[in-house]
Amino acid sequence: MENNHKPDLAMNNEATCSRVLLSKNEIGSIVFCEGCSVAELEIGAISLRIEGSALNTLKMLLADAATRLTLYQQEQAVYAKQTAVNYNVH
C-alpha cells in the first residue's frame, strides 16, 4: 500500500539536517535547520517550529505587539495619573 502523505518535518533524519544557531539570549534560542528549511524557536520547555520564510513575518508580528503593549501601558499610566485623587490638598 502506498503512503500518499508528505513526510512530517519533525520526522526528517537528523543526519540530513544541518542546524545553525541564529540567536540566543536569556529567554531562549532560535536554531535554523537547513535540511528542513525550518526555524525552531525554543523558550524554556516550549518549542515552536516555523518555516524559515515566515521568520521575518513573525518578527514583524512580535515588534507590532511590543509597540502596542508599550503604548497601552503608557495610556494606562496617563489614565491612572489623571484619575488619582490627591488627598493631601486642604
What layout of secondary structure does this protein have?
Layout: E1 19-25, E2 28-33, E3 38-43, E4 46-51, H1 55-83
Antiparallel strand pairs: 1-2, 2-3, 3-4
Structural class: alpha+beta
Low-pLDDT sequence parts: 5-9
Domains counted in the coordinates: how many?
Answer: 1
SSE string, helices as H and strands as E: EEEEH
Entry keywords:
alpha+beta, 90 residues, four-stranded antiparallel sheet
Can you characterise this structure?
- This protein has one helix at residues 55-83; strands at residues 19-25, 28-33, 38-43, 46-51.
- By secondary structure, the protein is α+β, with helices and mostly antiparallel strands.
- It has a 4-stranded antiparallel β-sheet with strand order 1-2-3-4, with no helix packed on it.
- It has 1 helix and 4 strands.
- It has one domain (9-83).
- 3% of the residues are buried.
- The protein is elongated, with a radius of gyration of 22 Å.
Q: What's the short version?
A:
Helices cover 32% and strands 28% of the residues. The protein is an alpha+beta fold and 90 residues long.
